[in-house]
């Protein structure tokens, strides 16, 4: 599966499909840190970044998983030893790219963006929130790929609409039971993230896993 | 490998493409799959390759190493032929020399440095065949492998298929052009009316679909049965018309292939 993951990453990088989401990431980071974040507000900035970059993570996941033409996916299935391995390799490649994006999002403000260097604990909490964001984004992107949604227009609208819906639902009282983007932004801003980090991580990972399980299930009949 | 009571449809409310198919593929056998456009040949190949599970029934005993060449090789990929084949070789754990050997055999050495996007249909078909043969496969599935191939490769491919079978591999070929019509010992499998009919080492009798609908019968020289149908003889030809098409000799192969691909019976007279 590692070899197929490498093949998919190589195709993604060579096809230049990596550029649009990468440019989106850099633009958003440019906006987030256009003014220096004052000391003590670093975790809040990380929480906002992790929540708002979900759409970029979803975009990168979708574009990577759609890099291979449909017939090549079939060829890859036989070459890798079965449909499950092809699907797994695709998701692994999407996670790899999004991990790279998340690392850029965490490191960039340390170089330019924060007025003072935050405590290592805050950097670690920021990294955890970005991991939650990339998990949700990867799942959302996978569910809007070509095998699941053949229409590019419907797929892009679902991706954007899904992200907006995720934000809006997380504003409501049931928000903590969905992917709790707004709750983690609020908690970080109020300095109360540690108290809610565990349930927030559990909810975000649960819904990400559910999205990925739905993707794997749908791909069984949509090779 | 065995398909037991296999039925398949693409969606819960969609029409059945195949129903209650019973099929046994022996190691070392070569199976030519024919049927008109939309009959379900590609669906059968997908079930055999394991790309999709059957809606009902079961598929058992599928060999571990499966090779698959699609009917249209996807050239929209950012690799040269050699880089692509190197990836596929690593994926299959094949010998690094295997792709080069197959390229020499299928007359594709001159393609190795070209980007996939620059390949013609026939050249792309060769790349698809090469990657499917890396391994080598225990089950080889070829979807219209002869389309667009040059004469030399078209002549070589049956020999390659024969070698896979001689080593105990099973070869299934969707073949609109009936290039395997004289392949010794080949089983012939007709997909029609949601059913699969197998005739061991002989051609299945095909239902007459009437004027303009797809029958895959016929050969370059024409069997007696096909020639009789094309000439309007016998009871099965009552609803058929004979049209004479004159083309340049250089275009004859292409026109013949197109007509066969559209399901028409074709007889070459010169």
Automatic annotation (TrEMBL), chain A:
Asked if the keyword Transmembrane helix belongs to this entry, the reply reads: yes
| Statement: the UniProt record of this protein carries the keyword Nucleotide-binding | no
Instruction: Name the residues that span the membrane.
Output: 18-37, 43-65, 86-111, 123-144, 156-175, 195-216
Supply the alphabetized keyword list.
Answer: Membrane, Transmembrane, Transmembrane helix
The name of this protein is ABC-2 type transport system permease protein
TrEMBL record, chain B:
Enumerate composition-biased segments (Gly residues). 211-221
The UniProt record lists the keyword ATP-binding:
yes
Region ranges (Disordered): 200-241
**From the UniProt record, which GO molecular function terms apply?**
ATP binding; ATP hydrolysis activity
Looking at the Swiss-Prot or TrEMBL record, what is one Pfam family this protein matches?
A: ABC_tran
Question: Superkingdom, according to UniProt?
Answer: Bacteria
By its UniProt entry, which PROSITE patterns does this protein fall under? Answer: ABC_TRANSPORTER_2
Where are the bilayer-spanning segments?
A: none
Q: Which UniProt keywords apply?
A: ATP-binding, Nucleotide-binding, Transport
Indicate the family of this protein. Answer: Belongs to the ABC transporter superfamily.
Identification of the protein by name: ABC-type multidrug transport system ATPase subunit
Question: What is the organism field in this record?
Answer: Streptosporangium sandarakinum
């Amino acid at each position: 599966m590692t070899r197929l993951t490498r093949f998919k990453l190589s195709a993604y990088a060579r096809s230049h499909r990596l550029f649009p989401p990468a440019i989106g990431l850099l633009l958003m980071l440019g906006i987030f840190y256009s003014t220096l974040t004052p000391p003590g507000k670093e975790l809040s900035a990380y929480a906002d970044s992790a929540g708002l970059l979900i759409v970029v993570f979803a975009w990168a996941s979708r574009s990577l998983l759609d890099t291979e033409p449909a017939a090549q996916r079939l060829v890859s299935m036989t070459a890798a030893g079965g449909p499950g391995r092809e699907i797994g390799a695709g998701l692994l490649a999407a996670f790899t790219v999004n991990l790279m994006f998340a690392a850029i999002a965490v490191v960039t403000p340390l170089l330019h963006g924060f007025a003072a260097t935050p405590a290592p604990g805050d950097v670690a909490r920021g990294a955890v929130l970005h991991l939650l964001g990339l998990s949700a984004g990867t799942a959302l992107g996978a569910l809007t790929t070509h095998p699941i949604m053949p229409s590019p227009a419907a797929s892009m609208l679902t991706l954007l609409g899904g992200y907006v819906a995720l934000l809006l639902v997380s504003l409501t009282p049931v928000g903590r039971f969905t992917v709790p983007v707004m709750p983690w932004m609020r908690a970080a801003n109020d300095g109360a993230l540690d108290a809610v980090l565990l349930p927030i991580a559990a909810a975000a990972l649960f819904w990400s896993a559910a999205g990925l399980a739905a993707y794997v299930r749908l791909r069984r009949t949509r090779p | 490998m065995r398909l037991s009571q296999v039925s398949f449809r693409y969606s819960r409310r969609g029409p059945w493409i195949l129903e209650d198919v019973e099929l046994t593929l022996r190691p070392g056998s070569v199976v030519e799959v024919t049927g008109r456009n939309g009959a379900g040949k590609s669906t059968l190949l997908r079930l055999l390759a394991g790309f999709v599970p059957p809606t009902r029934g079961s598929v058992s005993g599928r060999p571990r190493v499966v090779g698959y060449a699609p009917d249209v090789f996807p050239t929209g990929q950012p690799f040269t032929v050699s880089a692509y084949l190197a990836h596929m070789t690593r994926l299959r754990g094949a010998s690094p020399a295997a792709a080069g050997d197959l390229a020499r055999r299928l007359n594709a050495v001159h393609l190795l440095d070209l980007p996939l996007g620059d390949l013609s249909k026939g050249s792309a078909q060769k790349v698809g065949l090469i990657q499917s043969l890396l391994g080598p496969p225990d089950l080889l599935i070829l979807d219209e492998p002869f389309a667009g191939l040059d004469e030399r490769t078209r002549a070589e491919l049956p020999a390659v298929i024969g070698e896979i079978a001689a080593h105990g591999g099973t070869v299934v070929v969707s073949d609109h052009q009936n290039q395997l019509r004289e392949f010794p010992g080949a089983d012939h499998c007709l997909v029609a009316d949601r059913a699969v009919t197998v005739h061991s080492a002989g051609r299945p009798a095909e239902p007459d679909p009437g004027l303009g609908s797809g029958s895959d019968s016929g050969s370059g020289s024409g069997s007696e049965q096909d020639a009789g149908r094309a000439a309007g003889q016998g009871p099965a030809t009552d609803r058929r018309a004979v049209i004479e098409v004159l083309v340049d000799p250089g275009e004859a192969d292409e026109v013949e292939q197109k007509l066969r691909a559209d399901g028409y019976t074709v007889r070459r007279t010169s």
